[in-house]
Amino acid sequence: MIITFATQKGGTGKTTLCIAFSNYLSAITEKKINVYDFDFQKSFFNKWLEDESMEQPRLYEVQQISEENNPFTDLESIIKIKEDPEVNIFDLAGTLDEKYSDLLIYSDFIIIPFEYSDVSVKSTLVFINMLGMIGSQAERIFVRSKYDKGYKYLNQIEMDEEISKYGILIESPVFKRNCLQTIDTRKLTYEQKYAVKNPFNEIITEVNEALQITL
User: Fold this and answer.
1) What is the distance between the alpha carbons of residues 85 and 207, in angstroms, rounded to a whole number?
2) Which residues of the chain have pLDDT under 70?
3) How many domains does the chain have?
């Protein structure tokens, strides 16, 4: 399957959530996990390389995707990996780019982190519109990111109602936690696992039900 982390708005914690999800999933599934970093900043891939110095073993392989090294330039290669029984996680750049269209069209799931700021709201709606324009059939899963439990978001109710028209809004948010800023690709600390387990369990339930599998 293909699970893609994508959004137009940078700074929503997309790559951090992608790393955390890959770590979390590796702890509960027997399926092999492959990660592909399409982001031009290569944050996931560089972090994975940096973590080579750690004593813990690798949880998964991360492949850097670039203009010169892109195994997904044709539709056949995307369909092949989509039908692969392994779990393939894509971390896309935080930008709208035509070269990602096929990836977004044929992903099984697109996980879209968002915040309740005006800029993030508008960018999320633009991204949703773009997915509609290219005819993406992927299940869209929206995750509240960097959520401040003690803050009253004035536009939350309206935003939740609007987003829920276009996909699944995960009930549990990812709360703003300093521990997630120090995440690595080899483990989840107790605090990090506590910060993400509820929303990630909801995502995994949605995946299992949609594909009739057990991760």
Assistant:
1) 13
2) 95-96
3) 1
